[in-house]
Give the backbone structure.
Amino acid sequence: MALKLVLDTSAYSALMRGDAGVVHAVRSSEHLVIPAVVLGELLYGFRMGSRDLENRRQLREFLNSPYVTFKSIDEPVCERYALIMQQLREKGRPIPSNDVWIAAHTLAEGADLLTLDSHFKSIKGLIVLEI
C-alpha cells in the first residue's frame, strides 16, 4: 500500500462512513494529506447539511492527527496544475477544476491519490487508488 496518500473529498467522506476499502487503505498508509481544495469542499458540504458542527468537530479531530497534514496551494502545486490542465486540454478530456488541483497536490507531494472518482485516471503520472 502507499506510504503517503492524498484523500480527495469522496475518499474522506467514505472514510467517515466506515467504507471498508477506504478504511483499509488509510490504515495501511503511513501518512495522509488533505489538500486545501478538499478542505473547502468538505466545509461547503458541511454547511449545506444538517450536521455542520458535528462534521466540523470530526474533521478537526482528523486534521489534528499526527499522521495527517493539511497542504495549502504553493508554487509547485500551481506548476503541476498548469501542466495537468494543458495535458487534459490536449487530450480533450477535461475534469472538474477542483479535481485538477487535488491531482496537482498529489503529484507535488509524490503521493498516491485515494478517490472514488474514476476520471482521475486520465491524468498522466498520477497513481490512483480507486476504491
In short: The beta strands are 4-7, 31-35, 68-71, 112-115, 128-130. Helices lie at 9-17, 20-28, 36-48, 52-63, 75-91, 97-109. Residues 15 and 22 are 6 Å apart (CA to CA).
